[in-house]
Structures are given as structure tokens and as C-alpha cells.
Amino acid sequence: MYVKTVRKAIIPAAGLGTRFLPATKAMPKEMLPIVDKPTIQYIVEEAIESGIEDIIIVTGKGKRAIEDHFDHAFELEQALLKSNKHDLLEKVKEPSKVDIHYIRQKEPKGLGHAVWCARKFIGDEPFAVLLGDDIVQAETPCLKQLMNEFEQTRSSVIGVKQVADDETHRYGIIDPIDKKGRRYQVRQFVEKPAPGTAPSNLAIMGRYILTPEIFLFLEKQEAGTGGEIQLTDAIQKLNEIQRVFAYEFEGKRYDVGEKLGFIQTTIEFGLQNEEMREELLKFMEEIIRQYAKS
């Protein structure tokens, strides 16, 4: 039974971003912008809005741009100040107000290994993990919803959402036993089940509250699906010694880990921007007319 609150968060950002090549040959996929903000900034902002105090980003080779983004840009800030572009200055300074730590994953061994790399930063506390492939818009931040559940259960809580049956093979899937409100008791966590074999359509969506015992299983460095050390496999083993719940969080989830989802998210976020909404709608209408004729 844990009495400590969740104060720390891990954001894994060491992946190669192969789905977005060649764009990610020299630029981290986490720095690809949704309108005018890199995807990783949406994730960091969710953590801060949820009450997280310390963030560690697990990076890899070629990810220096992430550290630069969350650092001060003195020359740029001075140029904006001299030009009286105060609104832009505030936007530029916002990311550097966050206290972020970094550690490098020296080998691409999978998500589970990336989380394990941050074990010394976490210590013996419960902690959060946020993945950058999913952006969630919600009245109460997605991570905060899970933190609220942790406060009630004092157990690990995994964020889930329903997906189409023909997409379950792309995700970690839960096998639910019982449901109380939006919280599920889970029999089993299955990483990317073969098509037609998923125990449900409730998919793990990149938000986790985990107890430090997870490191007991990540320490063993056992490879799973794809030859990588899978976090879902370790969660299932944790579930065998202590309760791990799933929580179907409220809010709209955007998949920015795939090209189509990334484009769809960019369009919708553009439409949410009052300055560009009208012109963007006109452009979309014209494009639809052009392609309807072809």
C-alpha cells in the first residue's frame, strides 16, 4: 500500500521514428510540429497540468533538438524582445520554464528498456509514464485522471481506450475481469495479440501510473514481441503479484504516431485555431471540390 503521491514522470523519446522517414533522418519525430508546437511539448504540458513535479526524458542518438527546445534560446529571445514581439517571446520562453532531466538509452531495446533506464531517477516511488504517440484533449488531463485513480486504489493504473476490432493487433490489449465505473480489474495484459485473438478491444494508450516494483521485471531484460523489452509484458508480471487496474480515460485521443493520424491531428488542431480556422476551411472545401472531380 503506497502513501506517496505521484511526483515524477518518464517520457520515452529514444525511438528511431522510422514511420516518418525521411523527415526523421535528422529531426526527432517528437519534434515534428502539430501546427506550431512540437508533439513532445503537448506531452510535457499534460504532465505539468496534472501536477507532475519532475520529468525525465529518455533520449537516444540524434535527439539533441529535444534538449535544445526545452532550454533557453538567448539570441532568439533577445531578437524578439528588441522587435517588441512579446506574444512570440512568451511562446518561445514557455518550454524553458520546465525543469526537465535527461538520460540516454544507449541501445534501442524497446519501451520497457527505456523505462528501466530511468530507474535511478525514480527510486522507490510510484511514477508516471507518458508516450508521445498519443495526444489527449480532455477537461481533466488524461494523466491526472489516472493519478486520481491511483489515489483511490494505491495500485498501478493503465490508461485504455476502445479501438476497432481490426486494430487490436497494433496495441497492448487488456483482458478485463470486472468493471467499476471506468475502472477495470484486469486478468491479463497482452502485447499486440495476433489478429482475431484479442481478449477485448480495450487498448493501452500510452499513459501509465506504475509502482516501482515494475523494475523487478524490467531488470531481467527479457525480450518479447519484436525482439524488444516490452513494458506490457512487465506490467502483466506485475499484475501477478499486485493489482494493476486499467482506466478508460475521458477525452479525445489523437494518434500522432502514424502518418495519417498525424495529418488528421494537424488539420483538427488547425481548425481549433481561431486565427486560421476560416481560411483553412475554405482551403479544405476547395481541395475537396478538386478531388471530387478527379
TrEMBL record:
Residues 8-263 form the Nucleotidyl transferase domain. One of its GO terms (biological process) is UDP-alpha-D-glucose metabolic process. It comes from the Bacteria. One of its GO terms (molecular function) is UTP:glucose-1-phosphate uridylyltransferase activity. It catalyses: alpha-D-glucose 1-phosphate + UTP + H(+) = UDP-alpha-D-glucose + diphosphate. Its EC number is 2.7.7.9. Keywords: Nucleotidyltransferase, Transferase. Pfam families: NTP_transferase. Pathway: Glycolipid metabolism; diglucosyl-diacylglycerol biosynthesis; Lipid metabolism. The keyword Hydrolase does not apply. CDD domains: UGPase_prokaryotic. The keyword Nucleotidyltransferase applies. Belongs to the UDPGP type 2 family. NCBIfam families: galU. This is UTP--glucose-1-phosphate uridylyltransferase. It comes from Anoxybacillus pushchinoensis.
